[in-house]
Design a protein that fits this description.
Blueprint: H1 18-29, E1 32-37, H2 52-61, H3 71-81, H4 85-98, E2 103-107, E3 124-125, E4 129-135, E5 144-146, H5 149-159, E6 181-184, H6 193-207, E7 214-219, H7 230-239, E8 243-249, E9 263-267, H8 270-278
Parallel strand pairs: 1-2, 1-7, 2-3, 7-8, 8-9
Antiparallel strand pairs: 4-5, 4-6
């Protein structure tokens, strides 16, 4: 653990304190940068049940069960339409930090906001899935399907008073005919094929970090999926003597004894850290 931060001269003029300078300089000095985005990297819009979108949907459908398949789409619309501007600003800072760097990002967020950024899509893996693909609830053939974006647009139009919701057809599995659902870890038979190609690219990239100067950023990574980011990152930093870890979390910022000499613990929400100190 490094509790005292030495004064450093940053190449960016708008950083506001020494730890921000240290993060910036460490990223820019590294040969490779690994970023882990965790559960805390977000500002939740609140409960769907208390939203305007949900109220309009229930009024339009009368709560009939035949329309319940649309609720995940309503939730997606609600989350995206009510995304806090600070989330966008935090991703903008991350883009600036990683500019011209050899990086990879692993995120356990399922909101897919990272795919709305200019970060390189082939350098991102989201093993918990999201809204980008469909799957059969029975996991038929372990197949995923490209989602038709027009469906969410049609539902949004109905919520805004343009169109009849009963005319929207439910997507169905071509194998068993069941309703297709979003491909993410929240479903019972989660089909992992949706992220495996990116995961294999990630593992290959990790092999190249050996004996290279590596900067590791953990942004809000908690203990919900510790085996995906937190524990593997600790192991990586332990074995790579040329690495440095920045662990940023409002509560779970502690470092293990084995890596404390090459780690910085920052007790702060990651979005607050990026926005307040770099914007």
């Amino acid at each position: 653990m490094v509790d005292g931060i030495n004064n450093t001269k940053s190449s960016i003029n708008n950083t506001k304190d020494n730890i921000a300078d240290t993060v910036w300089n460490s990223v820019k000095d590294a040969e490779m940068v690994l970023v882990g985005i965790g559960e805390e990297f977000g500002i939740e819009a609140g409960s769907l049940e208390n939203s305007r979108e949900y109220a309009v949907f229930m009024e339009m459908t009368g709560g009939q069960s035949r329309f319940q398949w649309m609720l995940p789409f309503v939730e997606e619309i609600f989350r995206k339409d009510n995304k806090d501007h600070r989330v966008t600003a935090a991703y903008d800072v991350l883009e600036k930090l990683l500019q011209e760097k050899n990086y990879f990002i692993i995120s356990v967020r399922t909101d897919d906001f990272i795919y709305d950024t200019d970060l390189k899509k082939d350098r991102i893996v989201t093993p918990c899935g999201g809204y980008r693909f469909w799957q059969c609830p029975e996991g038929c053939g372990q197949r995923i399907f490209e989602r038709d974006g027009r469906l969410a647009d049609a539902i949004r139009n109905c919520l805004n008073g343009n169109g009849k919701i009963e005319k929207i057809e439910m997507p169905s599995c071509p194998v068993c005919g069941r309703q297709l659902i979003h491909n993410n870890i929240k479903v019972t038979n989660y089909v992992e094929e949706g992220y495996l190609e990116a995961w294999n690219a990630y593992k290959k990239w990790l092999q190249g970090t050996v004996n290279h100067k590596l900067c590791v950023l953990e942004l809000g990574v908690g203990m919900q999926y510790p085996g995906v980011i937190r524990w593997p990152f600790e192991k990586m930093v332990f074995f790579n003597q040329k690495s440095v870890l920045f662990r940023i979390h409002s509560k779970l910022y502690q470092l293990t004894e084995e890596i404390r000499e090459r780690g910085y613990k920052i007790k702060e929400k990651p979005i607050d850290f990026l926005v307040n100190r770099f914007v």
